[in-house]
Design a protein that fits this description.
alpha/beta; Aspartate Aminotransferase, domain 1; Aspartate Aminotransferase, domain 2; 2 domains; 17% strand; globular; binds pyridoxal-5'-phosphate
């Protein structure tokens, strides 16, 4: 076997474990109502929680931003690739989430990969929820700090591990809303533990920003926590409907990140036009109480409407509503049966989720109608009996 044959064999193994992933090419812009291969589908799988990604006002803002500020940044931010519109975006974001300063990264993955190694290193310790996002896990490994993986939401175990640690610098890291489970971390308790054990607290609010808290200011605003220990990350690619991410917190911490976060320093600045579109997006988020109220109605409709015995919705009050199916084959069969009916919800399998907990990750958006959700409930309730 040559090197390529090894890859062929490994890909064949993915096939036999039903773990090979495929992509679908969507015709048209992001919406719950999409066309794939000429056929219409109602999709319950995007993170476009407020329905802004396909909003013509953002498309117009991006076009206007491109005319005014151009598309390419031309260099990294610290060389000559930083624009006034990006500075304005950072000030707007910091004010919106109620923190001193913010720094915008090209993506959420890059933000996490930059922040953690900038804050801790060899000899330090990280305390991380087991279900944290992949980017937080990879960043933790990259930092070379001692990694303590804590059982999901187990603040007693976290307290025990913190109490035993002799590390000079400690960092507690958690998703706010867990991306594959939809549940929310006990943010006030995490903050109290950070204070008690003199640790930093990094919260990844990818799924809370724009959705939770007053005017969509995020899960941290909802929990009412702040202060210099709290470093918060929010994505601009999910509810905000565009691309990129920001880290917000104490001005000194943000200055440190600007000096030390390698994924900020050693990459070309994000397109200035994007910042212009994001300023428009934040206006829509802030004025989006109607969208958030509609989303809450859809979530209530879904959680009340399911009558499953075999498959269970995880307890979640957020737009992420996972239906646990169990084995990969059934999850794939259910996904395929829903496709036949014009409903699109991809099956999420290991390694994204633990083995034996394959699921349909249903996500709701303010762009769904009540009729969309009722159709989904009716179809899954029927398939549960027949599949
Ligand atoms: C999506 C996501 C990220 C990555 O954000 P991108 O902007 O898509 O790179 C990070 N953390 C969590 C929890 C996420 O869900």
């Amino acid at each position: 076997m040559n090197r390529l044959d090894h890859l062929h064999a490994a890909l064949d193994r993915l096939d036999s474990q039903l773990l090979r992933r495929v992509r679908r090419d969507i015709e048209g812009s992001c919406s719950p109502h999409v066309i794939i291969d000429g056929r219409p589908f109602t999709a319950f799988c995007s993170n476009d929680y407020l329905g802004l990604a396909g909003d013509p006002r953002l498309a117009e803002a991006l076009a206007e931003g491109a005319r005014r500020w151009g598309v390419g940044a031309g260099a990294s931010h610290l060389v000559s690739g930083h624009y006034a519109v990006q500075h304005a975006l950072e000030e707007r974001l910091a004010a919106f989430v109620g923190r001193e300063r913010a720094l915008v990264f090209s993506s959420g993955f890059m933000a996490n990969m930059g922040v953690i190694p900038a804050m801790v290193g060899r000899g330090d310790a990280i305390f991380a929820d087991r279900l944290n996002h992949a980017s937080l896990i990879d960043a933790m490994l990259l930092s070379r700090a001692d990694a303590h993986r804590i059982q999901h939401l187990d603040t007693t175990a976290l307290e025990r591990q913190l109490a035993m640690s002799t590390a000079e610098t400690k960092l507690i890291v958690s998703d706010s809303v867990f991306s594959m489970d939809g549940d929310v971390a006990p943010l006030r308790e995490l903050m109290a533990l950070a204070e008690r054990f003199d640790a930093w607290l990094l919260i990844d609010d990818a799924h809370g920003f724009g959705v939770l808290g007053p005017q969509g200011r995020g899960a941290l605003a909802e929990a009412g926590i702040g202060g210099w220990r709290l470093i918060q990350m929010g994505t601009l690619s999910k509810a905000a409907g565009v691309s990129g991410a920001f880290v917000a917190g104490d001005a000194t911490v943000i200055e440190w990140l600007m000096q030390k976060a390698r994924t900020y320093i050693f990459t070309t600045g994000s397109p200035p036009a994007m910042a212009h579109a994001l300023l428009a997006s934040i206006e829509l988020i802030e004025a989006g109480d109607d969208r958030r109220a509609h989303l809450v109605r859809l979530i209530e409709c879904l959680t009340k409407g399911f009558a499953q015995e075999r498959w269970k919705l995880l307890p979640s009050r957020t737009a992420i509503q996972p239906l646990i199916v169990g084995d990969n084959a059934t999850a794939l069969a259910l996904g395929a049966a829903l496709m036949e009916e014009g409903l699109w919800i991809p099956a999420i399998r290991p390694p994204t989720v633990p083995t034996g907990s394959a699921r349909l990750r249903i996500t709701l958006s303010a762009a769904h109608t009540l009729a969309d959700v009722e159709r989904l409930i009716e179809t899954i309730n029927r398939l549960e009996k027949t599949l």
